[in-house]
Amino acid sequence: MWKARFAIPDLLESLYFWISSEFLTILGFVLALVLLAHLLRQQRSPTSTLAWLLTILLLPYVGVPLYLMFGGRKIRRLASRKERVYLSHSGLRRIDFGAVALQALRANRVPPPTQGNRVALVAGGEEAYARLVRMIDEAERTIHVTTYILGRDPVGESILARLAGRASEGVAVRLLLDDVGSWRVGRRFLTPLTAAGAQVAFFMPMLHLPFRGRTNLRNHRKIVVADERHALTGGANLASEYMGPTPDPRRWRDLSLILSGPAVRDLEELFRSDWKFATGEDLGSPEPRAFPGTPADDVLAQVVASGPDVEGDPLYEALVSVIFAARRRFWVVTPYFVPDELLTRALDLAGRRGVDVRLVVPARSNHLSADLARGSYLRQVHDAGGHVLLFEPVMLHAKAVLVDDDLAVIGSANMDMRSLFLNYEVAVFLYSRAQVEATAAWMRALMDECKLGLPARSRTRELAENVVRLLAPLL
C-alpha cells in the first residue's frame, strides 16, 4: 500500500526531470513539425522544398533557426498591406507580338502595357550618373528614390548632397533603402539629408523581429521618379561601382532605362506601395497626367513587379513562357545564373530545337558561391547547344533578356532563384521594335568583349559545383 501511495509522485517527479532535461529537444521537435507544415504550404519548387525539408529533419538545431530567419517567401499578411500597382487600360492597342509574355503576365494580374512612352537605354556609368543628376536638379515637386545599395563613397555622398539641396528648396524628397543592401549606411551619414527636410526609411529592418521569416526577403528594386514624369530604373545601385561623374576602368558594367510617359505612373505607384509598407505613410495614388509626345515616342512598355507582395511569380512565369515560345533567339545577360530546374529545362529544350540561346555572364563575379552554383547549370545549357559567353574586362552587373525580334526585358532581377522567387524586383518589358533592336545592339557590343565557352574544370571544382548546386535552393 505504501508503495502504491508513493508510486505516482515518483513517476511524476521522474517525468518532470525528464521533460526538464530534454526540454530543448522536445521544443526543437515541436518547432520542426510546425515548420514542416508551414513549409509544405508554401509555393516552392520541389527542389527547394526538399532541401529545406532535409535541413530541418537532419540538422534541426541549424535548420529550424535558419528557416525562421530565412525561410519566408510569399507572406499573405505582407501582400495584404501593399497597395496594388495602378492598372491603366487607356490607349492600349492590340499587340500581336509578345503575346505569350502578355498572357502569362495577365494571368498574374500584372498591369497591361502602356503606349506613348519615351524610353532610352543607359549603358554607361557616367551617363547613368549624369541622367540621375539631371533628374534631381530639374525636379520641381517630388523626388522618390528606391535603391538596394547606397554607397558610403564619393558617388553616394554626391547624390545625398544633391538630394539635400533640393529638399532644402522645398522639393519633397523620399529615400527608401534596403536594410541589408545598405547596411553600411549609418544614421550619421544620412543626417545632412534628413536635416534638410527629406524623409528616409529602411525597408524591412533585419533586427526587427528577425524570426518571422522575413530576413531573406530583400527589396532589390532600383527606382528613381521625379515629378511623376521621369523615371530611372534598371540594375544600377547608387554607388561608385555602378556610376560616377568620370570614367573608371574598374567600374562595373550595368544597364538602366530612362522613361517618360504613362509607364512612369506604374513605377511611381510601386514606390508608393513600398513606402507605405516601410513607413505606414499613405501617399495616395499618383495624379493622372497627360504625356504629349510624337510618334517617335510611342514605345509600348510594361512595368512588371515581382516579389513577396505580388500574387504568383509573374516575372518567372513570363520568362519560362517566352523561352518555350522563342523561335529564333533567346539571349540573356545576367551577373548570377542559378535557375531552378524548370527554367534550366526550358533553356535546354530551346537549345536542342535550334533556338539561338546565349548566356552572357561575368567571367568571375563578386560572389564565389554564385560562381560555384552556376557552373553545372551553365554546362547543362552549353551541352544542349546553347552558347555561354564570359565577360572578362570587369564585373558585369546588367540584367537583360532578348526574345526573337519581339521583346526586350530590362530590370533589377538576376536570373537566379533569389531574384525570381524571393526578392522584391521590378522589370520593364519593351515590345517596340526600336527598343528591341537597341537592346540587341548593346548585347552584341557586350559579346564582342566576351570569351566564348567554358574552361575545363578540375575534379575538385566539379565536386564543389555539384555540392553547391544541391544547396542552391537554400542560398
Question: Would you give an account of this structure?
Answer:
The protein is of the alpha/beta class and 475 residues long. It has three domains: 2-71; 82-94 and 112-302, 2-Layer Sandwich (Endonuclease, Chain A); 314-471, Endonuclease, Chain A. The protein has 16 helices and 17 strands. The protein has helices spanning 2-21, 23-41, 46-58, 60-70, 76-81, 99-107, 125-138, 154-168, 187-195, 263-279, 314-325, 341-352, 368-383, 417-421, 433-447, 459-471; strands at 114-122, 142-147, 172-178, 199-203, 223-226, 230-234, 256-260, 299-306, 329-333, 337-338, 356-362, 387-391, 400-403, 407-411, 415-416, 425-430, 450-452. A 15-stranded mixed beta sheet has the order 4-3-2-5-6-7-1-8-16-14-13-9-11-12-17, with helices on both faces. Strand 5 and strand 6 (230-234) form a beta hairpin. The longest helix has 20 residues, at 2-21. The radius of gyration is 25 Å and the shape is globular. The protein starts with a helix and ends with a helix. The relative contact order is 0.14. The model is unreliable at 76-97 (pLDDT under 50).
Percent strand equals 15-25%
Helix content range: 40-55%
CATH H-tier superfamily of the largest domain? Endonuclease Chain A
- Strand elements, count: 17
Indicate the CATH class of the largest domain. Answer: Alpha Beta
**CATH fold call of the largest domain:** Endonuclease, Chain A
